[in-house]
Amino acid sequence: MVSGDPARPRVIVNCAVSVDGRLAYAQGRRAHLSGPEDLKRVHALRAESDAILVGIGTVLLDDPSLRVKPELLGATHGGAPLRVVVDSRGRTPAGARVLDAFAPTLVATAGACDREFPSHVEVLRSGVNEVDLGRLLAHLATRGVRSVMVEGGARVIASFVRGGLVDRLYVYVAPVLIGGTTAPSLMLGPECPGPESAVGLTVESAERLGAGTLLRYRPSPHAVAAHAAQ
Ligand SMILES: NC(=O)c1ccc[n+]([C@@H]2O[C@H](COP(=O)([O-])OP(=O)(O)OC[C@H]3O[C@@H](n4cnc5c(N)ncnc54)[C@H](OP(=O)(O)O)[C@@H]3O)[C@@H](O)[C@H]2O)c1
């Protein structure tokens, strides 16, 4: 186990946003915000992770394969990371790429979900109205998963961040503005009425990557209080 908490794997949230912090276009339409340099970094991060996780919203809108593309890495890599879908009600379409048999997949549903999945798909049922992410991480730990890369989307990122389950946040900022009222931002979910609910971060690094900027943060409970005091 390599996170600060021995009961769960290390969790890295990785995403690409516009300068105004949007993950996608209006109504959540997929935006290809990573340039070639960032795509290579993302696939290297996937390759070194034991599991890659997304929410059902991302599966429905983007239909990602969540596989490592060796052609982007220029090197061979080990086994395919476990693909994890957080899907309370079992809405993952039967034809979704994440359910193909090219890599192992675990679908995490709420406890009451009785949807059946193909035999090559592992199912973990936990939580009442939504998936219990703490229990999911604990289960992954017992299965030998030491690192999880959370790729999105906005609600799943918010739940991980607000649940105190994130060790690092990597944000690639593409040099573009999206705007509008329905393009999702990096976090959706519970409102943030004031600084007491904001999530403080500490910058670990900031670097130019291709045409954009790669920012690496770690959660920092003191950062908000420091800003609020100014
Ligand atoms: N730019 C990037 O790097 C990037 C990466 C990934 C995705 N995206 C974008 O993100 C958008 C999708 O984001 P999204 O917020 O709509 O969907 P999401 O975060 O992928 O999935 C959210 C859904 O997961 C389910 N869920 C189950 N347990 C949950 C829990 N404990 N916490 C949170 N969610 C839980 C809920 O649906 P149920 O109640 O039905 O279970 C919830 O609505 C798309 O536009 C996609 O293109 C962008």
List its salient traits.
22% helix; globular; alpha/beta; 6 helices; binds NADP nicotinamide-adenine-dinucleotide phosphate; 230 residues; Dihydrofolate Reductase, subunit A; 9-stranded mixed sheet
Concise account of the structure shown:
This protein has a single domain (10-228), classed as Dihydrofolate Reductase, subunit A (3-Layer(aba) Sandwich). 22% of the residues lie in helices and 25% in strands. It contains 6 helices and 9 strands; from the N terminus they run E-H-E-H-H-E-E-E-H-E-H-E-E-E-H.
What do you see in this structure?
With 230 residues, the protein is of the alpha/beta class. It has one domain (10-228): Dihydrofolate Reductase, subunit A. The chain has six helices and nine strands. The chain has helices at 36-48, 56-62, 70-73, 133-142, 154-162, 221-228; strands spanning 10-17, 51-55, 82-86, 105-109, 121-125, 147-152, 168-173, 201-209, 212-219. Strands 5-4-3-2-6-1-7-9-8 form a nine-stranded mixed β-sheet, sandwiched between helices. The protein binds NADP nicotinamide-adenine-dinucleotide phosphate. NADP nicotinamide-adenine-dinucleotide phosphate (NAP) is lined by residues 15-16, 23-24, 28, 30, 33, 54-58, 61-62, 86-89, 91, 130-131, 133, 151-156, 159, 184, 188.
